[in-house]
Amino acid sequence: MDYKIREIHKQEYPLLDNFLYEAIFIPEGIEPPPETIITSPELQVYVERFGESKDDWGLAAEVDGKIVGAVWVRIMNDYGHINDETPSLAISLYKEYRGFGIGTAMMKEILTLLKSHGYEQVSLSVQKANYAAKMYLKIGFEIVKENEEEYIMVYYL
């Protein structure tokens, strides 16, 4: 599958709401939550006023002119928060585009971008049952904390 990874444009920031919803891990056999769940304060930290902070960075994956995925970071007090110098990462890809290496390519691009801007590390939170946890480990993220349901992972740049 031909795809392009590029910087997300300001007029595309509203799409982050869609990708935030897509990023919610829904285990097999569980009913998906309503899309309005993304309006909750603990999820709004990922997208609210994105682009207004110097620590907001985002990339989009494009196939045939359509944005099919996004990866973005910001320093926020989210599930994967480590400290106030470490951006937290969110990544999402529409289901039909998973399994083609696009997610891995987006991750590698955002890590390169962050390193080039002087960040020392990036963090994320992922549920243990989420297949993406294996991808993060393969890329080089390390588990720094865990509870019953999720890992907090860090990638040292």
From TrEMBL:
The Gene Ontology terms for molecular function here are: acyltransferase activity, transferring groups other than amino-acyl groups
Per its UniProt record, what PROSITE patterns does this chain match?
GNAT
Q: Does the keyword Acyltransferase apply?
A: yes
Name the keywords, alphabetized. Answer: Acyltransferase, Transferase
- Tell me which InterPro entries the record gives: Acyl_CoA_acyltransferase, GNAT_dom, N-term/lysine_N-AcTrnsfr
Which residues are in the N-acetyltransferase domain? Answer: 1-157
Q: Which organism is it from?
A: Acetatifactor muris
Q: Which CDD domains match?
A: NAT_SF (cd04301)
Kindly provide the name given to this protein in its UniProt entry.
Putative acetyltransferase
